[in-house]
Structures are given as structure tokens and as C-alpha cells.
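#lab-general

N.A. 3:47 PM
ok so I finally got the sequence cleaned up, no stray characters, all 88 residues accounted for. can someone with queue access submit it? mine expired

B.Y. 3:52 PM
send it over

N.A. 3:53 PM
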Amino acid sequence: NEGIVTALRHHHEWWNGQGYPDGLQGEEIPITAAILAVANAYDVMIRPGPHGRARTPGEAVQEILRLSGQRFNPYVAAKLPKVLELAS
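B.Y. 4:20 PM
back already:
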């Protein structure tokens, strides 16, 4: 599906334009990629691995909110706490 390919291709784009592969910024980043970026970052943060210790879910949410408007779509980042509340 083209939508899935687009989301996967662009989920490392940053809201401020400093991501990759195409240097998209802001609203140029497909919403599906923005959602995937937040979900992926959260998942990486709560698991131990090469990025260091696992963060608590609350710490991960706070980090994503801190990077909102820089790395992450502010609208999508703001929805993360509610989505996690619904999932629990």
C-alpha cells in the first residue's frame, strides 16, 4: 500500500526540517509518518537497548512532549498521553 510506504519512508523526518531522508518539515510530513514517528520513539524509549536505559512510560511521554514542535508534530505529540490512557 502506498500510504504505508510513505509513512515508513518519512517517519524520520523532523517537524523542524532536520530529519531525513528528504528534509521535509511541518505540514509537508504526512500525518501517517508523524504518527509513526511518535509511536516509534515512544517504543524505543521504553525498552533498554543501544540508546541507554529504558525510560518509564511517563518519562518517554515527557521527552516526546519536550521535543514537540522540534522533532515531532505538535498535534500528534499532544495526543500521545490520551492514546496511552485509552490503551491501558
